[in-house]
Amino acid sequence: MTATGVHEGWTVHAVGGEVPAHLAGVRVPATVPGCVHLDLLAAGLIPDPHLDENEGELAWIGRVDWRYETTIDWDGPDADGTEVDLVALGLDTVATVELNGTVLARTRNMHRSYRLPAAHLLRSGSNVLAVTFTGALTAAEQADGDLGARPHVNRHPYNTVRKMACDYGWDWGPETTTVGIWRPIRLETWRGAGIESVRPLVEMDGDTGVVRLHVELRQARQPAGPLRLDVSVGDLRTRAEVPAGQSSTVVEVRVPHARLWWPHGYGEQPRYDVGVQLTGHQNHDEEVKLDDWHGRIGFRTVALDTAPDEDGTPFTLLVNGERVFARGVNWVPGDSFPARVGRELYAARLNQARDANVNLVRVWGGGIYESEDFYELCDELGLLVWQDFLFACASYAEEEPLRGEVVEEAREAVTRLSPHPSLVLWNGGNENIWGYHDWDWQGELGGRSWGWRYYTEILPAIVADLDPTRPYLPGSPYSFDPARHPNLPDHGTMHIWDVWNQLDYTEYRRHLPRFVAEFGFQGPPTWATLTRAVHDEPMRPESPGILVHQKAEDGNGKLARGLAGHLPPPGTFADWHWATSLNQARAVAFGIEHFRSLMPLCMGAVVWQLNDVWPVISWSAVDGDGRCKPLWYALRRSFRDRLLTIQPREDGLSVVAVNDSGLPWQEEVPVRRVDFDGTVLAAATMRVDVTARSVATWTLPRSLAVPDDPAREIVVVGTGADRALWQFREDVDAKLPEPRMSARSEVIATGYRVTVTAHAYVRDLALLADRVAGDAHVDTALVTLLPGESATFDIRTGATVEPGEFLDPLVLRSANQLVTGPGRAGVLEAGGANW
Q: What Pfam families has UniProt attached to this entry (predicted)?
């Protein structure tokens, strides 16, 4: 088999719909893989959809039909006895594929690939290949009319076509309804037989790793007769014969003393190379290699404990028999134009996840099945993958043609992703069952299908058939009994959104869930990202460009209400940016620490969300330009293996030690009640003695737990950056002092170093380095200092700046500033300034 990419010489032009006059008849060079927005942008014909108010100005693109064309110079083998297929790995979405004017296929699914026999249409010399796409908005609306309107969130009927749902807009994403050849396209030439797919399913038999390779073959019009498969797993080799005409077989390989693959924080991630070579006979029994396949596997077992207990229905992942608390994040597509997401971006985001002590990434159902790079990197980094099937916040017709598309895409996704040890859970979809119960769908549906059979019959049957080694969940949230409400704290998975939408974030403590698959709080992108994307003058929370980049319903109102009771109303846009960023970090950390303190009652906290598709005010920890928001630093602290947290309990204020490491935690820990001026008002020593993967709680004595003046006292448990703090009053009601500090900034080999010494109690000190240099990344943030304590911030950047710029009061930020004003004190020092 030989493969030739068809990626050069493409053009795109409008062929129907609401075509602007300046584009009529204009052919634009096209990049494949790619999409029409990126092609028009590269040609200078549209502004960047991600900037300012451009999104709305470009809505017309989704109502235009677009034709991609290229020529293929063909001097390949004669068609007699040779198969030539056009293989398209991703067409977005409703498309007609033509070769030399003859239709090869009509497609309706972004989430699957197509193999189209083309030998009969190819001719020697020049051949014209064309793919004509129906406008993405037009296609959805036409399908809505054909299938019958069904309820969904947001403006457009994304639930009628098998396309990335968030392409039609979400409460964190733009409406960039694009089309294009978004994954590679190629010609494959082969004879006799080929490998259609390989599903390596693993299990353990004692310390022996067992892999069963399910090999599906395709046969040519002139088959090759008996075939042979040569299989390698690591250093082991085996061989299997395939009788003539047989299209599938299973090859078992047993690996003695197999090294186990573990999630991050539980062990190493060894993987084994797997090779499959297909050999046949041609030309009077001449042996010929026909095709091959290569992949990597990891040996591990995975199970889901949902056996009812005295508290309800647990939801606990077990890997290699060990219970795993899911320190998770939800993943949305890496860009609103997925064609420009490559391995480099995946690696950056997934490393940011692991560096924040995350061990699980949930691929959300309104996006895509990601590329091999994504899952390979998760394998390498030890990040567990929870994979949604692609249904989100909508009802879906169970009739044709949608049903057939769902079946084909699901079977392909399960087959393609089966080698990856990181993949540990299949989930039927996101909030669809919850929506049916609570979002007034039933009257609108009038008894019509809405997706229930997908989640409870069709998808679980596909998983049972193709991948019985992994557990399946009908949806999230889900309570494991159709008679129950799907979003109950006592049963299965829960999504907690009343906190963001209606309640103060301290209400997280009201919830005692078994597993939280979604919860979160909004905050703006970093300053450098926001000011690159929005150029309003003046910049205000309600200025036009800012509002375009705030997609949540009443998002800014919820941000303001979320600050109330915690911080004063901001007086400037810079203060608004810092206050809402800080409040986001505090809110999510508050939730995480509460949920972790409940272990093993609660066995997962999956934050909404890790990343963004564009520069936007959202729930993300890493913004659309890849910069870490304050929330990211809060995740890293709250998700660390060993966590001390102070929580109110029935018996009083308590210290909870969460030991999610594999070793016992034994330590003498100082506990102090301290005045803001540094005076120790009460002190004791606590003996921490916690077994591996467990939690222990100690009630503080009254002398430590009850303040003399709650407006100016804190409790401090432990030492250093990992200590736990309890402030008796919120900042808005506390007597926070001005942030008096000595600060020194200096040049170091990797950038700059800022050393700060506090002369007063300074809460949540952060250095917003991107305000000085766009590429600057600081190693720590949200540091709280008592008088006399010091902290060091190392800034990595390639920029050359004046070191003192990092000491500007708009860069070196604290919660104190929001209460008292910037506050300057001290004298200049060499290399920097005191503020």
A: Glyco_hydro_2_C, Glyco_hydro_2_N2
* Mode of pairing for the β-strands spanning 125-133 and 168-170: unpaired
Residues 134 and 243 grouped into a single domain: no
Q: How distant, in Å, are the alpha carbons of 652, 757, 776, 778 from that of 769? A: 40, 18, 6, 7
Do 68 and 156 lie in one domain? The reply is yes
SS3 sequence, 144-172?
A: HHHHCCCCECCCCCHHHCECCHHHEEECC
Give the chain's residues under pLDDT 50. Answer: 823-831, 833-835
Return the CATH number at 79.
Answer: 2.60.120.260
Q: Is 241 helix (H, G, I), strand (E, B) or coil?
A: strand
Q: What's the token pair of residue 156? A: 């457009």
Asked if 520 and 619 count as a contact pair (C-beta separation under 8 A), the reply is yes
Q: Please name every residue paired with 274 in a beta bridge, in sequence order, or none if there are none.
A: 233, 295
pLDDT at 825: 35
Q: Nearest to residue 133, comparing CAs of 98, 183, 99?
A: 98
* Rounded-to-integer distance, Cα 497 and Cα 622, Å: 20
| SS3 assignment, position 288 | strand
Q: Token match 């620490």: residue? A: 593
Q: What is the DSSP string of 213-234?
A: EEEEEEE-SS--SSEEEEEEET
Tokens of 796: 């990595």
Of 214, 217, 216, 213, nearest in space to 194 by CA: 217
Provide the b/e sequence for 683-704 (b: ≥16 CB within 10 Å): eeebebebeebebeebebeeeb
The upper half-sphere exposure of residue 810, i.e. CA atoms within 13 Å in the direction of its Cβ, equals: 13
Which H or E run contains 242? strand 236-242
| Residue 150: Cβ-neighbour burial (10 angstroms; 0-12, 13-18, 19+) | buried
What is the pLDDT at residue 282? 67
Residues 239 and 111 both lie in one domain? no
Three-class secondary structure assignment of 275-304 = EEEEEEEECCCEEEEEEEEEEEECECCEEE
Task: Determine contact, residues 66/55, Cβ cutoff 8 Å.
Answer: no
The three-state secondary structure class of 596 is helix
Bridge partner list, 186: 5, 87
Please tell me the distance from the alpha carbon of residue 18 to that of residue 37, in angstroms, as a whole number. Answer: 15
Pair (34, 175) in one structural domain: yes
> What is the C-alpha separation between 104 and 72, in angstroms, rounded?
15
pLDDT at position 224, please? Answer: 77
- The structure's pTM equals 0.96
Q: In what order do the strands lie in the sheet with 680-690?
A: 680-690, 665-675, 713-717, 724-727
CB 26 within 8 A of CB 42: no
CATH classification of the domain holding 749: 2.60.40
In a domain, 69, yes or no: yes
Count CA within 13 A, CB hemisphere, residue 253: 27
**Token digits of residue 623:** 């913004």
Neighbours of 109 (CB within 10 A): 24
Structural domains in the chain (count)? 5
Helix or strand (DSSP H, E) at 519:
strand 516-519
Burial track 451-464 (b if 16+ CB lie within 10 A, e otherwise): bbebbeebbbebbe
Tokens of 56: 């709305």
Domain boundary among 135, 161, 188: 188
Say what the alpha-carbon torsion angle 726, 731, 732, 736 is, to the nearest 10 degrees.
120
Cβ contact 641:660 at 8 Å: yes
What is the largest distance, in Å, between two alpha-carbon atoms of the chain?
97
Nearest CA among 259, 209, 263, 518 for reference residue 378: 263
- DSSP letter, residue 705: H
pLDDT in the model for residue 830: 34
